Every structure is written in C-alpha cells, then in structure tokens.
C-alpha cells in the first residue's frame, strides 16, 4: 500500500520554511523517528544541493530523523535504496525530472513507494509524484527525456493552481482556457 503526503508549497502565509507542514509530517512519520529520509534536492536551482539539504534539515529537525541528500551517494540511488523515507523538494519541475532520469531514480523510487516506503514532496516534489508534469506552471529551463513522472498515482496535479483571476491580471485564467 502506498503511503504518500503531497504538499502544495514549502511556505504558507508568514510561516517559516516547511513550518506549516510539521503537524502533518509528525503524524505521517510518527513511526519513523530516528530513521533516515533520503532527500532529493534536484529542483532547487537557486542554491546548491548542500544549502538546500541544510535548509530542509533545519526546518524538519523536530521530526528527529536523519535527513541525507541523495547527492552525497557515489550513485545517488544508493541513498534511496538505504532510506526509510523519501522526500522530494520543490523548485523547478523540469530540472527535477531531468535529474531523476539522469540518475536512474525513477524506477527505484516508484518501486520503493509501491512497496510501502513513505514518500512526501512539496511543490515540484508533489508534481513528479503524478503521471506526468504536463500541468506544471514552471518555466522549461531544461528538458527531461520524457514528461512522464514517477506515476505514483494516476493523475496530474498542479500544486500552484489559482482559481479565478488574480487582481491586476488581465490575461486568461486557467478556467477560461
């Protein structure tokens, strides 16, 4: 049975990074205290993987878990294979999916999650959990070999969908397209 928590964003209103997610994550990961989370930082394009990892470690320190970024593994999949939980962060969905393919992580993540390993992702990390990234709002700053994503559930999501028109926006809304 799959065990997933997909989050729209790393921030909500005036809260700190991932702060609004802590009650859900504490409940979701209650049985995993002291275990290891494999963190996938590939979507983070405005900071280094080390910086992104540190940001997530600091934000989720109350969970009492060891958070290790996959970029520390000789083969990135080594970290995924050894992990008790998988987390994929937000940023640019195209960069994320491209590197998931480049590091051969699509199949191992899918296999582990299908076999019960907990998965949580926010923003782009939620996007790639679906069947494809065809509904992302992200700029295509690079191209993955396919838009097919992890296919952990048979739908596409758009974590930043805004219903209606934002004040001052004169273009079409999503509903008008």
Automatic annotation (TrEMBL):
Single GO BP term: proteolysis
Keywords from the named record: Hydrolase, Protease, Serine protease
Keyword Transit peptide attributed: no
CDD domains xref list: GAT1_Peptidase_E
Keyword Hydrolase carried by entry: yes
SUPFAM superfamilies attached to this UniProt entry: Class I glutamine amidotransferase-like
Database matches in Pfam families: Peptidase_S51 (PF03575)
InterPro entries in alphabetical order: Class_I_gatase-like (IPR029062), Peptidase_S51 (IPR005320)
GO molecular function, one term: serine-type peptidase activity
PANTHER family in UniProt: ALPHA-ASPARTYL DIPEPTIDASE, PROTEASE S51 ALPHA-ASPARTYL DIPEPTIDASE
Similarity annotation: Belongs to the peptidase S51 family.
Protein's recorded name: Peptidase E
Organism: Haemophilus influenzae
Lineage: Bacteria, Pseudomonadati, Pseudomonadota, Gammaproteobacteria, Pasteurellales
Gene: pepE
